[in-house]
Amino acid sequence: MPSLSPTEFRHFEQRLRERREVLREILRAELMATRRAEYLELAGQVHDVGDESVAELLLGVDLSARQRELDEMRDVEAALERIKGDRFGICTDCEEAIALERLEIYPTAKRCIRCQARYEQRRRGGGDPTPSL
């Protein structure tokens, strides 16, 4: 089973760390913007301590608009864990090497293209076998 060179591992680790920082900043900025806007709106509506605690809870809950970034952050963290465990670039299903070209396009890939196609086909209950990223 061919594996990545140490240079390639470092390359992907750096890319993933950089992407993680970008995602953290996007999520942090969104949280701060959401908190400011919602705080100003809720501040005029809060009348007692109970209302205040509900308002505080609501301030932290509305990250649904950033679900894609949250999902990508999980994928990046999982890929970094695979690097630490020397499993990066190895398909989680068949344990063969994931093509370098696939990793360049999609560095968080955990399956080779063949296994990804099978995985997606099973999830769809059959149908089009063309894999997504």
Could you give a quick summary of the protein structure above?
This protein is mainly alpha-helical.
Characterize the structure shown:
- Helix 1 (6-43) packs antiparallel against helix 2 (49-61).
- It contains five helices and no strands.
- The model has no long low-confidence stretch (mean pLDDT 80).
- The protein is mainly α and 133 residues long.
What's the helix and strand layout?
Elements: H1 6-43, H2 49-61, H3 67-84, H4 100-105, H5 113-124
Uncertain spans:
none
Q: Indicate the structural class.
A: mainly alpha
The rounded distance between the terminal residues' Cα atoms is 22 Å
Residues in helix, %: 55-70%
Beta-strand fraction estimate: under 5%
Q: What are the defining features of this structure?
A:
mainly alpha; 133 residues; 65% helix; flat; 5 helices; single chain
